[in-house]
Amino acid sequence: MKTLALTAALLATAGLAHAETTTYNVEPSHTYVTFEVRHFGTSTNRGRFDKKEGSVTIDRAAKSGKADISIDMTSISTGLALFDTHLKGENFFKAKDFPTARFVGDKFSFDGDKVTAVAGTLTLLGKTQPVTLTAAHYNCYENPMLKREVCGGDFETTIQRSAYGMSYGLPGIPDDIRLLIQIEAVKQ
């Protein structure tokens, strides 16, 4: 009888240790999604997407999590309005038909309590491909203004744009696109 009670107590405690899921909402003024692509083997073109939203759920004890981030493709900004219009158009992002890109990550890698990578899928131009975002930095801190925990870091990956049906300008404009995601998210 004593063994049965001890076993039940251990199982209940194990369940509590596993249930440490915390949700963080993306803080848009500290989150940036940028891209880099070589231009005909010379300079590097860069741009960013100004509108993004989503959430990240992390269970540090279970070393698991889920990220769901949406990017407004119409919010592209390169600093040149004519170039922005070209990138939103039929040759590249087709933003009128595909106004949103979405990353869903469900495989988190950790080193201790720090996230080192998030694997999942990126949906762009109606096509979904696997992608892994590698963390260059990751940290959590108590935000002095919000009085809440904020976690985030710098993540990056390289995708092949042709995998999403974006082949305009190949091979002069390379297939490899470097994505850089600076993200901070606020504990809910």
Word description of this protein:
The chain is mainly beta and 188 residues long. The protein has one domain: Lipid/polyisoprenoid-binding, YceI-like (Lipocalin). The chain is 13% helix and 55% strand. It contains two helices and eleven strands; from the N terminus they run H-E-E-E-E-E-E-H-E-E-E-E-E. The protein has an eight-stranded antiparallel barrel with strand order 1-4-5-7-8-9-10-11. Strand 8 and strand 9 form a beta hairpin. The longest helix has 17 residues. The radius of gyration is 20 Å and the shape is elongated.
Strands ordered across the widest β-sheet: 1-4-5-7-8-9-10-11
Number of structural domains: 1
Based on CA atoms alone, the radius of gyration comes out at 20 Å
| Shape label | elongated
Q: Biggest sheet, open or closed, and with what strands and sense?
A: 8 strands, antiparallel, barrel
CATH level-1 class: Mainly Beta
CATH T-level topology: Lipocalin
End-to-end separation in angstroms reads: 42 Å
